[in-house]
């Protein structure tokens, strides 16, 4: 497993942007690591009626990063970025999707996200989201909320997979 960032008491007084990054990175790492040690079959196994699988969930998280830290910041359209038009499509797995390839794509998307906002402050407004102009702090909070939700999904799916023996 990769090491996860930890939230230390001395970080309570860090700038807001740094606090957002620490919390995001903690959830990014947890979601990435949810695939560790699983077989390809386990990672693709459907345990719920929706399209949600652990591999699809991490692939969707890559989409989330690109929507909020590429599309919203750069104003590039999804087709140009190379991501699906809808969130639902982002769960679709291709034959070439593997644990290694999806984890790699996710790490790359997270690194690109950090770079995209490196020179921005939480009060800066991003203009490329379909909702209209949004302060970066809203993007951070929305992404954190979504990743936290998906980490919970991943925990439950992983627990089900590992309890099957």
Task: Provide a descriptive summary of the structure in words.
This protein is mainly α and 165 residues long. It has one domain (21-163): dinb family like domain (Four Helix Bundle (Hemerythrin (Met), subunit A), Up-down Bundle). The chain contains six helices and two strands, in the order αααααββα. It has helices spanning 16-33, 40-44, 54-74, 78-81, 99-116, 136-163; strands at residues 125-126, 134-135. Strands 1-2 form a two-stranded antiparallel sheet. A hairpin with a 7-residue loop joins strand 1 and strand 2. Helix 1 (16-33) runs antiparallel to helix 5 (99-116), helix 1 (16-33) runs parallel beside helix 6 (136-163) and helix 3 (54-74) runs parallel beside helix 5 (99-116). The protein is globular, with a radius of gyration of 16 Å.
- The average pLDDT is 93
The whole-angstrom Rg is 16 Å
> For the terminal residues, how far apart are their CA atoms?
21 Å
- Topology-level CATH name: Four Helix Bundle (Hemerythrin (Met), subunit A)
What percentage of residues falls in helices of 4 or more residues?
55-70%
The outline comes out as globular
Strand content is under 5%
What class would the helix/strand composition place it in?
mainly alpha
Query: What is the ordering of alpha helices and beta strands?
Result: HHHHHEEH
Largest sheet: 2 strands, antiparallel
- Give the number of helices: 6
Can you tell me the CATH architecture? Up-down Bundle
Broad CATH class: Mainly Alpha
Provide a concise account of the structure shown:
The protein is 57% helix and 2% strand.
């Amino acid at each position: 497993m990769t090491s996860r960032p930890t939230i230390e008491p001395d970080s309570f007084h860090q700038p807001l942007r740094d606090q957002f990054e620490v919390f995001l990175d903690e959830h990014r790492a947890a979601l990435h690591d949810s695939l560790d040690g699983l077989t390809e079959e386990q990672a693709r196994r459907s345990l719920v009626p929706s399209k949600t699988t652990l591999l699809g969930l991490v692939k969707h998280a890559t989409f989330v990063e690109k929507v909020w830290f590429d599309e919203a910041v750069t104003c590039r359209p999804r087709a140009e970025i190379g991501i699906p038009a809808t969130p639902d499509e982002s769960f679709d797995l291709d034959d070439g999707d593997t644990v290694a390839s999806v984890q790699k794509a996710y790490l790359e998307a997270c690194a690109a996200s950090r770079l995209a906002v490196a020179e921005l402050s939480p009060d800066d407004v991003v203009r490329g989201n379909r909702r209209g102009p949004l302060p970066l702090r809203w993007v951070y909070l929305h992404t954190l909320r979504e990743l936290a939700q998906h980490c919970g999904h991943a925990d439950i799916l992983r627990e089900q997979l590992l309890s099957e023996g």
